[in-house]
Amino acid sequence: xxHQSKFVAIVALAIAGSGSFVLHAIERNAADSQSRxxxxxxxLASDELEGRGVGTEGLNKAADYLAGEFKxxxxxxxxxxxxxxxxxxxxxxxDLGPKDQNFLTLVGPEQLKLKLGEDFTPxxxxxxAKFDTNLVFVxxxxxxxxxxxxxxxxxxxxxxxxxxxxxxxxxxDPKSKFDGERPSRHAPFMQKISNANGHGAAAVIFVNDGLxxxxxxxxxxxxxxxxxDKLVExxxxxxxxxxxxxxxxxxxxxxxxxxxxxLSELAKEAEKDPDQVLPFQGAGPDSQQRKMPVFFVKRAIIxxxxxxxxxxxxxxxxxxxxxDLKPQSAALTGWKADGEASVLQKKAEVKNVIAVLEGEGxxxxxxxxxxxxxxxxxxxxxxxxxxxPWTHEVHNGADDNASGTATLLEVARLLAxxxxxxxxxxxxxxxxGEERGLLGSAHYTKQPRFPLDNTIxxxxxxxVGRLDxxxxxxxxxxTAKEFDPLVDELGKKYEFKITKHxxxxxxxxxxxxxxxxxxxxxxxxxTHSDYHRPSDDSPKLNIEGMQRIADFLLDVVNKTxxxxxxxxxxxxxxxxxxxxxxxxxxxxxxxxxGSIPDFAANDEGLAITGVSPGSPAxxxxxxxxxxxxxxxxxxxxxIEDLQxxxxxxxxxxxxxxIVKRDGKEVTLEVTLAKRMR
Length: 677
Description:
Blueprint: E1 6-9, E2 26-29, H1 30-44, H2 57-72, E3 85-96, E4 103-107, E5 111-113, E6 120-122, E7 129-137, E8 143-144, E9 149-150, E10 161-165, H3 189-198, E11 203-207, H4 210-239, H5 246-271, E12 294-297, H6 299-310, H7 314-324, E13 330-341, E14 343-357, E15 367-373, H8 398-416, E16 425-431, H9 439-446, E17 455-461, E18 471-475, H10 483-493, E19 497-501, H11 510-514, E20 520-524, H12 543-562, E21 595-597, E22 606-611, H13 616-620, E23 627-631, E24 634-635, H14 639-646, E25 654-661, E26 664-671
Parallel strand pairs: 7-10, 10-11, 11-12, 15-16, 15-17, 17-20, 18-19
Antiparallel strand pairs: 1-2, 3-14, 4-5, 4-13, 6-12, 7-13, 8-9, 14-16, 18-20, 21-22, 22-23, 23-24, 23-25, 25-26
């Protein structure tokens, strides 16, 4: 490691007459650089900024701070209506609409008008729509082709309301095909909702499974028995005291009172009906852009309807399925559902913060992007991305990604104060919405301020604050011919132990640019136990390491800028951990498609920002800007639907995919492949 307080940073050699950007041999004080980085990251990761969550005032304060720092450096910031802010809207919360727009009535031999909040609840994972249509019971709502089990087989549920039991068959059976003692991938709400949506259902009604209610009763009985045993033991111990002291008497009376109070509470709990409806956000915080309503209804109500239509109870149906794993799905003849759900999405304006150092010379119309996201997960909570979702406290995100943002600022300072202009335009981008799915970078690449075909490289900083034992991870070394040897050269210069990953796709903002065929490098110092938790605080950062990473990137930028030729783009098939439709599941059991979702889009269907090189999607002719609306026989409304649908097919199968392109439907044939690694 470099411990000296001063060193000479020679970023590039001057090439006479080339007009290239050169930092001459300037003696620079490393301690000053570290002090600036520490000050920046300290503010960005302070409690005042409220975890920089989307929708918080703290995120706006961070944006204003970055804009101010860019302006102090003399960078060009009048880019969007005289500001550095590229604004767009995102959904920050989902709320239940007016009561009169959330109702459900089951109509058959009798009319069952359900009470909101007592008999039923609309769920935030559903959409807003009215319906008046037939009811179909689809068991557990599972289509598991690999297990030869399909609750939808032989049923037409298009434009009908489907009734689904929670979880899956053969729970707690270690011999079950469905993993038995733990939930399989078929059990989650979102998987079942996606499957229903794919089959064209008008709405979904969920009910509790029988084992859930039985387990709830057994749990109360178990806790009651434990409390009773403690009371007996307490009395026994006291009786054994021949001459108890006043202190022992008081202690005994207090213990007995506490246990009796607890038993009284448990008695009330035992009297309660465990068949309770889920709260509005009980299955998740938002709707995945679907219009299809999703409800949770008390089991007893649906049990009555099923008995009257099918002649058997839900308990009997579950027992039958458990016995032979044969679905018991059927139309609930004579019954229909009349209802409406209103799910309101609250939106907030967010903004990328962008500044420019203009170039000079024959390559001045070419652009180099240096980026880092400045948002984090706010106060945590369910659906925020926090890995401590039970907490409600500031997640300061010092490493993720105040570290990358502060390093971005330092690189901007060094470039802007060098006294020389680059020969290419250098654009500094602080992205927002990365934690919600690369929203800021996806928005920029859809509406670029500078032409993407003349953007020659993008360099990204995300979590660069925990340098340990000089280990620096660099993604994208295989995205341009020049990058691999450059990273090797600079790794030696700065004494980093470099781990290289060739691919240009990964779970950060560089992916949005590589999808547009722009060479990328992404710098990263690794994950840690504080990741996405309130404990990710600035005192834990390696400031000296961040300063050296800034110098490393400074050299990368300068060498890229000073070269006569732009980096030679390489189409690289390797995927580097992107959690999207490009992946094939943890065991690779799901066929691979290779579409790259556009998380910033708000279309009916799944918009894509591009396709992975060499992927089935690319070979089939899918393009960035397409909106996938159907895969095989499944309707697609979002990423969950696509992932669910892929499980229905095998590697090597050829299926039809319908996309919307320029407002028209285009049918493509895709041959699904094994995930590329």
